[in-house]
Design a protein that fits this description.
It contains 22 helices and 18 strands. It has about 650 residues and is of the alpha/beta class. Strands 5-4-6-7-1-8-15-14-9-10-12 form an eleven-stranded mixed β-sheet, sandwiched between helices. A three-stranded antiparallel β-sheet has the order 16-17-18. Strand 14 and strand 15 form a beta hairpin. Helix 2 packs across helix 15 and helix 5 crosses helix 8. The longest helix is centred in the N-terminal third of the chain and has 33 residues. The relative contact order is 0.11.
């Protein structure tokens, strides 16, 4: 009887242990499924000469417009293309849009791509490669250090016209054999993974104008599902042909002057644009463990479809409301927890009112922190289509960082086709400060809707406050008297340009220390073939050295060269290389060196009663560095 009772008690205990194990496992799965994602790097190219997130913020803050007339470097027959008559077949009644400067430029040699293959490559692939490199560097990650990692790539791309253009060109014979991959949308993501050696998922997404934001949703799921530990995500659009302008001219859907009047009474059509935007994203816990700078958080997202609605290409209000509510639920938030929305806002008389009504029905009710602020970056340079969602995310991350909501341009008055009194939603016709809330962080959302009927909504949050340094980390370190700042590039011209850009950055950021720049130049940048070092004693010396390097002027503290291949050999000079006060300055400036030298003392028979530090400093009574049995171990310790 006792044995049977013991068996029952043992089984109950085992059952309780198993229940607790399953409870912990379930909690870990729930935590992983809802863990915020950290945006740690951003790269972009947009109309108006924008080549970085910093330049994008300048354009937004200065209320500049990036649209221009049709480019002259695409081979378009501009005289025949433009006709103000909207009923003239084969023409466009607008000659304006948002175009990238020198969209055909590409540093093929940098990525190890032959001239023939580069000529065949879709400019969208070229642009993604360059922007990917810049996004990783913005994150403080050496792209070459990720080779063999499970980094994932998720890119939105919707146009594949370049293969047709290249195949019909006079140089088509030169590029035969390359076009199947060079113009394929699937290769847009795969080429990044191939070139940089990533082994995580590589996915190209085409849901039309919602592509890049759908790519963000896919990256979130992949990171939370641990398919990858780091993700590069975004989208790209470059227009090799003007047929999009021609087709939408027949529908009378284009803005004649190339300006998107988002949610405005004067809205008169969309303006097409080009661009590329990429984000480097990882799980928040990983970002903290890796010591990465966190630019902002992604709290949640959702994707759905219009289904059998009021038209294949027509937006659908109820579906937009559902995707917003799904994203909020995924983020564990209520509508009142979000301050602002970067809307799709293309400036059309059909789509904008439907979107605004969906926002009023969801975010506009039961507000506790004032009205929802609504804007659209498309008012600055047009609709970048497959890159539009990424553009909106980058804009709102910058707004969170600067605590400022940029103005939406060209709004004469709110659209009369929207019942603005049905909820609390306010158009950002002027830039506004973004005040902090006492009970929650700043939050924003981004919407994208595709002509395919695919809708997506992503919710962002400002970066968490940095955790205070521990007491052990608060060690006062004497800065070294000189700091080497390293630069590298694939070519001499690129090295000069990099020196000039670093100098411009230092001037724009006067609070950045020389020591920080020196450290970052070693730990966060790829070490490429053409190299230079500026040995700086202070900020002025570094600026002077960079200035000399940028124009190839010789300077005593600037050195150039290429890495020596082969094995490294250290040669220690023997007795006779010592001098009075040897290593004293290093003892005073490097706590690590002083600590190691102190640890050496007792291990040397002659120094049982003396620290090696005292020997090096020449303290009275200490063994002399002139003695053979003293100088040899001392030299060895210092040189090691």
């Amino acid at each position: 009887m006792a044995t049977e009772k013991n068996d029952i008690v043992g089984a109950l205990r085992q059952s309780l242990k198993e229940t607790e194990r399953l409870r912990r496992q379930n909690q870990q799965l729930l935590d992983r499924a809802s863990e915020p994602l950290a945006i740690v790097g951003m790269g972009c190219r947009f109309p108006g000469g924008v080549t970085s997130p910093e330049e994008l913020w300048q354009l937004l803050a200065e209320k500049r417009i990036g649209t221009s007339e049709f480019p002259t470097d695409r081979g378009w027959d501009l005289e025949r293309l433009y006709d103000p008559d909207p009923d003239h077949p084969g023409t466009s009644y607008t000659r304006h849009g948002g175009f990238l400067d020198r969209a055909g430029d590409f540093d093929a040699e940098f990525f190890g791509i032959s001239p023939r293959e580069a000529l065949a490559m879709d400019p969208q692939q070229r642009l993604l490669l360059e922007t990917a490199w810049e996004a990783f560097e913005d994150a403080g990650i050496d792209p070459t250090s990720l080779r063999g990692s499970d980094t994932g790539v998720f890119t939105g791309v919707m146009f594949q016209d370049y293969g047709f253009v290249a195949g019909m060109s006079e140089r088509s014979a030169e590029i035969e054999g390359y076009l199947p991959t060079a113009a394929a949308g699937s290769v847009a993501s795969g080429r990044i993974s191939y070139t940089l050696g990533f082994e995580g998922p590589a996915v190209s997404v085409d849901t039309a104008c919602s592509s890049s934001l759908v790519a963000v949703d896919m990256a979130i799921k992949s990171l939370r599902g641990k398919e990858c530990s780091l993700a590069l995500v975004g989208g790209v659009t470059v227009l090799p042909r003007p047929n999009n302008f021609v087709e939408f001219s027949r529908q009378r859907a284009l803005s004649p002057d190339g300006r998107c009047r988002a949610y405005a009474a004067a809205a008169n059509g969309v303006a097409w644009a080009e661009g590329a935007g990429l984000l480097v994203v990882e799980r928040l816990s990983d970002a903290r463990r890796n010591g990465h700078r966190i630019l902002g958080l992604i709290r949640g997202s959702a994707v759905n479809q219009d289904g059998a609605s009021n038209g294949l290409t027509a937006p659908n209000g109820p579906s937009q409301e559902r995707v917003i509510r799904q994203a909020l639920a995924n983020a564990g938030l209520s509508p009142a927890d979000v301050d602002a929305v970067e809307g799709h806002g293309t400036g059309t008389t059909l789509g904008d009112p439907i979107e605004a009504e969906a926002l009023l029905a969801t975010y506009g009710r039961e507000r506790s922190h004032g009205p929802l602020k609504l804007g659209s970056i498309k008012s600055n340079f047009g609709h970048t289509m497959a890159a539009a969602g990424a553009a909106g995310v980058i804009k709102m991350v910058l707004a969170l960082q600067h605590k400022m909501l940029p103005a939406t341009l060209h709004v004469d008055a709110p659209s009369p086709h929207v019942d603005w009194e049905s909820g609390e939603v306010e158009l950002l016709t002027e830039a506004q400060e973004w005040p902090a809330s006492q009970d929650r962080p700043r939050r924003a959302a981004v919407s994208s809707f595709g002509i395919s009927g695919t809708n997506v909504h992503v919710i962002l949050e400002e970066a968490p406050a940095e955790e205070p340094a521990t007491a052990e980390a608060e060690v006062e370190v004497q800065p070294p008297s000189v700091v080497p700042v390293l630069l590298s590039a694939r070519s001499e011209a690129a090295l000069r340009e990099q020196a000039d850009r670093l100098r411009a950055y230092m001037i724009a950021q006067p609070d950045v220390s020389v020591l920080d720049i020196g450290f970052s130049s070693v730990t966060t940048r790829a070490q490429l073939e053409r190299r230079a070092a500026v040995v700086a004693t202070d900020r002025g010396a570094l600026l002077a050295g960079l200035s000399a390097l940028s124009v190839a002027d010789p300077a005593a503290h600037v050195f150039e060269g290429r890495p020596v291949t082969g094995k490294t050999v250290f040669v220690f000079p023997g007795q006779g290389s010592q001098w009075v006060g040897m290593a004293v300055e290093l003892l005073e400036s490097s706590p690590v060196f002083a600590e190691e030298i102190a640890a050496c003392g007792g291990a040397l028979s002659e120094f049982v009663d003396w620290r090696l530090e005292d020997v090096l400093r020449g303290v009275e009574g200490a063994p002399s560095l002139e003695r053979v049995d003293v100088v040899q171990p001392a030299l060895w310790a210092v040189m090691v």
